[in-house]
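Co-fold these.
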Amino acid sequence: MSTPLCIFDTTLRDGTQGEGISLTAEDKVKIALKLDAMGVHYIEGGNPGSNSKDIEFFRRIRESKLQAKLTAFGSTRRKNSLCEQDINLKHLTESGARAATLVGKTWDFHVHTALQTTLEENLAMIYESLAFVKNSGMEALFDAEHFFDGYKANPDYALAALAKAKAAGSAWIVLCDTNGGTLPGEINEIVSRVVREIDAPIGIHTHNDCELAVANTLAAVSAGARQIQGTINGYGERCGNANLCSILPTLQLKMGHDCVSDEQLKTLTNVARYVSEIANVHMPVNQPYVGNAAFAHKGGIHVSAIMKDSKTYEHIEPQLVGNKQRVLVSELAGQSNILSKAQEMGLDVNPDSMKSRNVIDRIKELEHQGYQFEGADASLELLLRDAYGGSVQIFTVDSFKIMVEKTGGQMTTEAIVKISVAGEQVYTVAEGNGPVNAMDNALRKALVQYYPGIRDIHLTDYKVRVLDEKDATAGKVRVLIESTDFKDTWNTVGVSSNVIEASWEALIDSIRYALLDMVKDDIEPEFVGGTHGLVNH
Amino acid sequence: MSTPLCIFDTTLRDGTQGEGISLTAEDKVKIALKLDAMGVHYIEGGNPGSNSKDIEFFRRIRESKLQAKLTAFGSTRRKNSLCEQDINLKHLTESGARAATLVGKTWDFHVHTALQTTLEENLAMIYESLAFVKNSGMEALFDAEHFFDGYKANPDYALAALAKAKAAGSAWIVLCDTNGGTLPGEINEIVSRVVREIDAPIGIHTHNDCELAVANTLAAVSAGARQIQGTINGYGERCGNANLCSILPTLQLKMGHDCVSDEQLKTLTNVARYVSEIANVHMPVNQPYVGNAAFAHKGGIHVSAIMKDSKTYEHIEPQLVGNKQRVLVSELAGQSNILSKAQEMGLDVNPDSMKSRNVIDRIKELEHQGYQFEGADASLELLLRDAYGGSVQIFTVDSFKIMVEKTGGQMTTEAIVKISVAGEQVYTVAEGNGPVNAMDNALRKALVQYYPGIRDIHLTDYKVRVLDEKDATAGKVRVLIESTDFKDTWNTVGVSSNVIEASWEALIDSIRYALLDMVKDDIEPEFVGGTHGLVNH
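Predicted complex below.
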């Protein structure tokens, strides 16, 4: 079986309806180019009738010669009016997009309640609007809003609406589970009937309100739908849209459908992370296929089986979607985890050596103190490199001091840092929004003159947890920091009874890890100007 | 249709295999009590054979009379040995749990590769181990690991393994999609065959590697499975386990199965958020049914339709799962909650008064800033008492200052606090293990002379979370503090871009809340000695 399917991405339109997701025209251009390179067939860029930001996006994207069909979104015309006088349809046809999706009502309840018009007028709105768009020279697609709820309430009317869209010349008729409440069995049954009765290419557009958007999409494909609408990372209104990052690999690797090339599928993890960075949304570590933990193994028994054959606990090879296997180290796991981690890093490991025994004892001791390396890969890597000789000590900390003060409603935070780097002592002071920010600023200020690449690194998450809960403010705390340089993401840990010291430790590890790469080519630090040495900055 | 189903929660066992999820014995007790109140039928508490933390949990939970069947997890015995000599099985039977789940192999590939034994020996391991557990007086459940992959590779062997488990007296045979790679159609077909051929109650245990764990569970139920294994919020290894927070409402509200009572289902959102707080894992805003955005409406057209009839864009009534609609124009549900909370506290509340409108506006504004009162009842109570006149302003803070320094490996932390109490200014300085401890010490030192009861209060938990993840060290953080006086426990919240300020805020609320009780009988502060006024302590 190898039926070609059509992938329709609506990250830039329906995806931006998600809470906390807001994309500038520039963001949208960047994402469109990534999607195009991955081989999606349609890119829905926005609603040029609803806001000027989308008009700007359509203007700017024209310069890029997209392979995908650029698509603009709008609604059927207003009730009791002419398409020629509809300002939204005008914007749509002037957008420069090659295709237009028009959403229209197919649920009688919505026609009465939301539109407050007659069933006949709604059919006229569908027919005339799609014909208008098609006559303007664009490809027309019909988004049948609430189709499944509509079909359950009044199948004849819902099907009549589709027939109107087909008669008007729609290239695709897309069945939408707008409220996300339909179950896979219902989807399969209803799509099967539509495919039998409506002689037009059928698409599917689902929402995740029951955590079934992916399953509903697959059920529709099994029933004969040929266009899949969804978003990267499942962004979208309420609980989100169907997640293309889960649908694409399942269709291609498990169901035998051709969607994109094997090479394009290998960019999936990168695309998912890139979009999450631009959208400024934290990607869940456990996201299927593309998440950082999607192929991470924690339990000792699992890890020892994985070492024998990765198929034992992996449903696909992670490389097929551009992800990778990770072995997590935790108190539950044994020494085989730690050593395979070291081997993964390319270190020369002899499991029986004194070195190996020492590093395992050290990690156990740290875990006993409250360190948790499963969420702090980078700290573990530094520990292993320090042990097996794969790291360089780039700087040492001589002292630091934090002052936080609130007087007259005014907060002030300063950090003073004294470090030794390249044989010199650097002494810096910086302000910050809080103590960690101030420490981070002071430390960068000291290092940036030697390692300008450090400018690109920033902290993306910061978590604190009390370990000994019997006395929270006097007990130990564990700090986890996540950092990124826009390409990679890494996690570090610090533990202390003092939250400042624990944060400092995790921060130092984050910077040391970033510097591992920067000093690979050039062990001698580069000096790029500014005063340094025993100088107050 | 109304078939009763059995809900088996494994948040405390398989859930803790998730990356970044680490629960203390005390955390586990708290979660078990919540799950029990929600009416789940089995609570799998952990693996007493693998770590001492789980043994402690089973010891401590014995004091609570759970309605649910407490279940311990373990593996079939080691190859070529006797159950009587298996230390893990020994721990299992000594755990005090009423039931035991034993995981065993049903995939021939795993028997050869991971266990490295014969197919016959594996069948003996299954039979003897389950019989051993059953003979010890416990109910025995069989987790058929990799059953679906095993069935696809060698159906006869996979079914033979189930038959052995049945012959040994397993109360349930649970089919596991351990690697999470199976599709709903396959699940339906294979479960149907098992139900036909194996005369025992069948359960389903799925993983989310294809974002299909919920759909696969529902497919198994449609095929005749009667026990559902899953975790709260879908926590679990790699991409997680089947999410009970999505499965439970779908089964009950859409598929007509009885699982828990309607009242218990209404606690679902609270349970989901409580567990995410304890696990210190950020809950995705778009999580189905229980997420903060699950019933949030952003688009203008959607909002106006919702105002006419909420069914237009909501697949269920949010109240059925204890969640609420969020609409930008007005939060009617929220408002009535807040007012009924105030009435609960015995405050004289007129919903239409200016006072009520002001306090609701204030709470909305704070929530917008990142405050979350669901996990901070005491802060909410103070806010309401301040508004309706049920509190006394016992002290005000004039200024505070924190200094943290590390020189020569030595950490020093000091806090200086200036407060006004009983018409006098008190100025104190104290050391601490960290900044929060130092602030706490300085504040107590200032107040204890007036309110000696403050000595009995201490902080039991302290959590920090970044809210704006774009720039973690410069973004906002939310601090949650839990305090106790050995009789009661209360939670307070603070939000700021500065972790010290947010901590200070939560700390002040904690102390103010404690003082509410102490001043009830005696509004005039008691003076118990020591110098005070404008004095340096």
